[in-house]
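Readers outside the structure-tokenisation community will struggle with the description of the input data as it stands. What matters is that the chain and its backbone geometry are given together, residue for residue. For illustration, here is how one protein appears when written out as sequence plus structure tokens:

…
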Amino acid sequence: MKNKKRIGTFIFIMLATAFIVATSVSIGIGVSEYIKNQNEEKPKKESIKKEETTQDFKVEFREELYILKDKDENVIVENKRTIPNIISEKYQIQAEKITDFLIKISDEQWGKIKVSSDEYYSQNSSEKVGVSYLLSILEQNDKYFTFAFDNSGSIGGVNYEDRVGYSFNTQTGELLNIDDISTNTNELINLCYTKLLEYISSKEYANELDNTWKVSLKQLLSKDGVWYLTKDGLSFSFPRYSFGPGSIGVISYMISYDDLGDLISNEYSSLK
């Protein structure tokens, strides 16, 4: 009888020991993986940020982070962008076209931001830096859809503050160009050039501009991303260093539809 009890006790002890060892190994692996992940680069962390529904379209924005930490888990670089997904049952093809275009633009700029981040990180700098690269809806109606990418922040002394905007034909999903919205492209550009020339020349920073800034202005007026349609008029945004030193910053200006008059085609003049 005593032998049976001893055998039973022995078996119980062996099973309990095995359980404790297995549990310890499991816990040990879990902690190890956690520490490893904490010390690794964390380039991506995505979630649904928000949704915006505008008439026949719903726009989802996902947030993506690119974070680099030092060995002590201090964040050295933290970048953020928003990625769109445009959904429409009525205009499915158009929604996909616009989404693909915006993601392509976003990926190109995001790639540059990540390269700059990696270079800064490799220098073992301790100062925290980062860039926010965010997409937003400026205007949407049954004629056009306007989005804007806004950059803010800096990495290693390089300032990323700027804005680019794009307007799309809602019915086709195609990116609008200056010819699509004007009745006379040359006259429209000349009018916009004159007004922008007056505006920029009146600013305090005018003396800091490059000698060729007027030529550059004329060349940039019809460039994709520089101009875009808004509710109140035709807007322009010129990135830093377009006409002079970075200290000038981004130059933004809007010309109202009233000032543009009949130079905007009937398809868009009804929106004035």
About this structure: The helical segments are 2-39, 92-122, 178-181, 185-201, 213-220, 257-260, 266-269. Residues 94 and 173 are 4 Å apart (CA to CA). Confidence is low (pLDDT under 50) at residues 2-46.
